[in-house]
Amino acid sequence: MSGLNPNAIVDINKTANAYAASIVLKIHNRYIDVKSILGLTLTLTLDMDYELDIHGPDEAEAKRAMADVFRKHGMKVYVLP
């Protein structure tokens, strides 16, 4: 992983798990459930751009929180509308 602090993975995962919404990370042709710590560990690096697709009862709050936590750790993220 390109300099990504393991604490960033835990922080992103904990943030995602605080919401009922489905939170999916799109990268190339792969889709990763952000609530899966293993999926995140095998996928996240600092030098990539990410897309998040978030749907569910609390999606507005989840979109804000997920964008904030990715940016907090210096990661580029686009949250799909």
From TrEMBL:
InterPro entries: HPr-like, HPr-like_sf. Gene3D superfamilies: HPr-like. Residues 3-71 form the HPr domain. It comes from the Bacteria. This is HPr family phosphocarrier protein. It comes from Paenibacillus chartarius.
